[in-house]
Amino acid sequence: MYAGALMATVKKLSAGVIRTDREMADGRTIRYYDSTPAEHSAIDQRPKEAQPEIGQMRYDALLGEWVSMAAHRQARVFLPPKEMCPLCPSQGELLTEIPENNYEVVVFDNRSPSFRPPSTDWKLPVIDSLNTPDGQAAGKCEVVCFTPHHEGCFADLSPQQVRAVMEAWRDRTRELSQDPYIAHIAPFENRGEEVGVTISHPHGQIYAYSFIPPRTQKHLEIARAHHAKTGRVLMDDIVAREIHDDVRIIARNKQWIAYVPYAARYPFEIHVAPLKPVADLALISDIAADAFPEIALEVLKRLDGVFGMPMAYMASWHQAPVREGHDVLRLHWQITSVRRAPGKLKYLAGSESAFGAFIMDMNPEQSAEQLKNVQL
């Protein structure tokens, strides 16, 4: 019997979404999220393959950051043609990561993960500069398929599909937070070869780190300093300034606000934040989750409409780490695009890549105006 033939488990979530778990041929878990009734009984017919060993983490004493070594990822799938796409539903002789011949939203454990669950009790090595011992690259990596359709993008989803994706993000944040070795959860999407996409099927990923990644650590330190000085939460003050200035806001509804940040680093950068602030995706109310599709689709359609062409972008959820910072950090969705004009990209050259000092070629108010002027 294939592992995929084991009994499915079913869980009811918000907005009528049903989660159904199945086991894949190699023992990984695939989770189906459906906003309408669906049966998932297909068995993964592929032969069982050995999963890669857990990678190694090394400490960069020069920058005070962890670096993960995942050499097995060199052999991962790279820009396959549509007829060989591993994220499309299985059809005929095409046996993909999704055994069913149709689906709405699925989340499954990555076949070539940068991080893996540790096999034994695990602790992050104690940092001691150059004497810091190496550690296992503990964590989890998951793939989120937004749609069974190979063509298109997130902006082409129906509001119902976006709501199902949001429910998957909330559900995975809640569940991954229960693992004792997970310190931070980061859902994100890369779109376009310009930002390194290796499979063109509309999808995102979830990285669950066993450490707090550098950018989140910096967010945390700055937010704590602001709170200590003012008694207020930094992100709340930032949103209040955007509302007061009212020049960089590009979309808004009763639950969310979208704006180009005051000190944007990219030609087109958009932050989307709930107006009733929360620390992470698990804490979003059902009302806010229901209102998310409207603003998400508007923002992404405005981005594509600026030059009348699909925009390459990175869309990342920033939230508080699992076990700290909930008092000072706030959830927000950051979308950045490197395209500054048709046929022109903003390359992260010497100043940005070598020194981390960003230089913008136009004022954020200009890009905000371009986004607002798009006719939907």
Automatic annotation (TrEMBL):
<dbReference type="InterPro" id="IPR001937">
    <property type="entry name" value="GalP_UDPtransf1"/>
</dbReference>
<dbReference type="InterPro" id="IPR019779">
    <property type="entry name" value="GalP_UDPtransf1_His-AS"/>
</dbReference>
<dbReference type="GO" id="GO:0008270">
    <property type="term" value="F:zinc ion binding"/>
</dbReference>
<keyword id="KW-0119">Carbohydrate metabolism</keyword>
<dbReference type="InterPro" id="IPR036265">
    <property type="entry name" value="HIT-like_sf"/>
</dbReference>
<dbReference type="GO" id="GO:0005737">
    <property type="term" value="C:cytoplasm"/>
</dbReference>
<keyword id="KW-0808">Transferase</keyword>
<comment type="pathway">
    <text>Carbohydrate metabolism; galactose metabolism.</text>
</comment>
<keyword id="KW-0548">Nucleotidyltransferase</keyword>
<dbReference type="InterPro" id="IPR005850">
    <property type="entry name" value="GalP_Utransf_C"/>
</dbReference>
<comment type="similarity">
    <text>Belongs to the galactose-1-phosphate uridylyltransferase type 1 family.</text>
</comment>
<keyword id="KW-0479">Metal-binding</keyword>
<dbReference type="Pfam" id="PF01087">
    <property type="entry name" value="GalP_UDP_transf"/>
</dbReference>
<dbReference type="GO" id="GO:0033499">
    <property type="term" value="P:galactose catabolic process via UDP-galactose, Leloir pathway"/>
</dbReference>
<feature type="domain" description="Galactose-1-phosphate uridyl transferase C-terminal">
    <location>
        <begin position="224"/>
        <end position="374"/>
    </location>
</feature>
<keyword id="KW-0862">Zinc</keyword>
<feature type="domain" description="Galactose-1-phosphate uridyl transferase N-terminal">
    <location>
        <begin position="56"/>
        <end position="213"/>
    </location>
</feature>
<keyword id="KW-0299">Galactose metabolism</keyword>
<dbReference type="GO" id="GO:0008108">
    <property type="term" value="F:UDP-glucose:hexose-1-phosphate uridylyltransferase activity"/>
</dbReference>
<dbReference type="InterPro" id="IPR005849">
    <property type="entry name" value="GalP_Utransf_N"/>
</dbReference>
<dbReference type="Pfam" id="PF02744">
    <property type="entry name" value="GalP_UDP_tr_C"/>
</dbReference>
<protein>
    <recommendedName>
        <fullName>UDP-glucose--hexose-1-phosphate uridylyltransferase</fullName>
        <ecNumber>2.7.7.12</ecNumber>
    </recommendedName>
</protein>
